[in-house]
Amino acid sequence: MNTSIAHYARQLDDAAVCAQAIAQFPSGSFDLEQAYVIQRTAIQRRVNRGDSICGIKLGFTSRAKMLQMGVHDLIWGWLTCSMLKEESSSIDLNQYIHPRVEPEVCFLTKRTIDRPMNALQALDCIEAVAPALEIIDSRYRDFHFTLEDVVADNCSSAGVVVGSFSRNFDALSNAGVHMAFDGRYVQTGSTAAILGHPLRAFVQASRLLAASGLHLPAGSLIMAGAATAAQALPPETHVRCDIYGLGRVEFFTATETP
Ligand code: OOG
Ligand code: MG
Q1: How much distance in Å is there from the Cα of 151 to the middle of ligand 1?
Q2: pLDDT tens string 189-247
Q3: Distance 104 CA to ligand 2 centre (A)
Q4: By alpha-carbon position, which residue is closest to atom 9 of ligand 1?
Q5: CA distance linking residue 32 with residue 203, whole number of Å
Q6: Is 155 in the pocket of ligand 1 (CB under 6 A)?
Q7: What is the C-alpha to C-alpha distance for residues 207 and 227, in angstroms, rounded to an integer?
Q8: Which of 93, 130, 138, 92 is CA-nearest to residue 230?
Q9: Could you tell me which CATH number the domain at 3-254 has?
Q10: To test ligand 1's pocket by mutation, which of 62, 65, 75, 157 has the most ligand atoms within 8 angstroms of CB?
């Protein structure tokens, strides 16, 4: 393997494991295609340690997120089992650098995703949908990155909390999204902010996977991307996301330990 690819992957993986931010790589260090190779190499390091892939996530599927981060292209990364956090559990923030949380829609697949699909075909591949909260934690200092940087960093993936799955597919379009900290709204929006309809995120996922020559087995998760901007995650907080017609998902953050 190209030694610099392995070098970038190790730096990003170490930063995640040690919860220590790193400086952005010098501009032009790698292109987008190489960034995805770095991403895959870093994930392979996790898998080699016993973790396993359980799905994928999309990023920058809403304007709110693009504006917040100054990045204007759809990206995707991997979800692994160690990222899945129990709903209603207390999450220790010490494992992260500068975590943020954002409201999302999560799909559970019922067939292998191995070709580009249209919306109708995509619907036929969805077992269920759930409201979800994603914890993102850029490994770059101050959450500053370029498109290539964030792709190499597995799109800031750090944690996923998924609510109850249902087959309320009709609820997906233009549903109110509310994220609250200790009962106070911190972000509000609509599922329509996700590419007009979250199903389009699924369609895009199928296209991106096919373009990379990859497939996703049945029973995988697909996170559609945040409907609103992300919010810095404070300690000792109750975090809740309500998506009208889909339900609620929540967790707590633990007391900070020195
Ligand atoms: C990159 C991840 C983007 C989303 O839902 O748009 C993302 C980041 O904002 O750090 O997860
Ligand atoms: Mg996200």
Answers
A1: 10
A2: 999 999 999 999 999 999 999 999 999 999 999 999 999 999 999 999 999 999 999 99
A3: 7
A4: 69
A5: 21
A6: yes
A7: 21
A8: 138
A9: 3.90.850.10
A10: 65
